[in-house]
Amino acid sequence: MDSYLIQLNGNSDVHLHRNGNSPSLGKVKGRKPRWAVRASEMSKKTFNPIRAIVDAMKVEPNPNKPMISLSLGDPTVFGNLPTDDEVTQAVKEALDSGNYNGYAPSVGYQSCRQVVAAYYSCPEAPLEAQDVILTSGCSQAIELALAVLANPGQNILVPRPGFSLYKTLAFSMGIEVKFYNLLPEKSWEIDLKHLESLVDEKTACLIVNNPSNPCGSVFSKSHLQKILAVASRQCVPILADEIYGDMVFAECKYEPIATLSTNVPILSCGGLAKRWLVPGWRMGWILVNDRRDIFGNEIRDGLVRLTQRILGPCTIVQGALEHIIHRTPPEFYHNTLSFLKSNADLCYTALSAVSGLQPVRPSGAMYLMVGIEMEHFPKFENDVEFTEQLISEQSVFCLPASCFEYPNFFRVVLTVPEEMMVEACSRIQDFCERHYQGNEGAQDLECDK
Q1: pTM of the predicted model, to two decimals?
Q2: Which of 175, 189, 217, 214 has the alpha carbon at shortest distance from 404?
């Protein structure tokens, strides 16, 4: 009977016999086998700042007051902002057709890519199907864009305050994060001098989030042109997070940054989640805008290869995409924005009247940032303690802006029903009136220490 000897890792011999009998193990060389299962280095480096801060909060809400959560950026939570019936019907039709039960290409169906390309294409930033990559939500779009642009040891430029996912993804990939400042006194415009000072030979890309989470700000055309000028001078590509694109209030105009670029290559990330109010459906996309062919085939091919890791987004939602985009009535978008604007005005007006708070008026998205004049609240060391006590006393949960690398602010989500927003603002006012100390009181407290 013939046999073959295979050595595995140099530690053991396995004899395979031609007659199909079970292999017999030779003697085991080296150390005695033992279990040694450990988490990967990538998993150890993955860190979500929001979860780290929120999970560390050891506080219970006031049992005498129902909880009002102004913390979660999910417009579906309270049931007051359903998607349009046409959107739901489109998915039902796709499901009933039986045509979307199998695998799609990892980049998405060609017909669906063409639908997205046609919807966003314009003379200033023309798009074809090959310029669109469909993804499992905007979060995966951002992940793929980062993964194709940056290597471990390089750095990316990220807004402060900004969406925490950028840091979470970058750290897990071994990419350094450099934070550039946004200016609350200028409606959260970018500090352009600070931004440009951060660029070095290892800078892989600049992330621009417009409209902004957590700020609710919307950049003007002139400001976007100045951002592009910095990127052009420094030869740094842009990753544009535009998931809140077109979700701007009537007095503002949203400008996709790619429509203003003549030479800076841009990967624009978007999706259905926020504008169509279906974040759980996980349908996003990357738009490759590259007029000067700076990305060339390398970045496009790299994106295609990266998509093959999970084989694309939900096929049923892809099947519904054309009808979602073309059948959703304009009044649906209008009604959503009117509601958000009303809540934004209500919250801004109410909190502007509260001593010790400095809200910044938003222009879009679903958020409002509120500054805390910490010197007038000496009982609290920081925004985390402030928001913890707000939960404990008033059962109102706002995210401390330390979650967004910006201490002494908190973020308010504007999607709650109007009566809850009124009640939440009233409770915040009561809380601040209880703990506020004027300059004289604060000085007296300092002298007592």
Answers
A1: 0.90
A2: 214
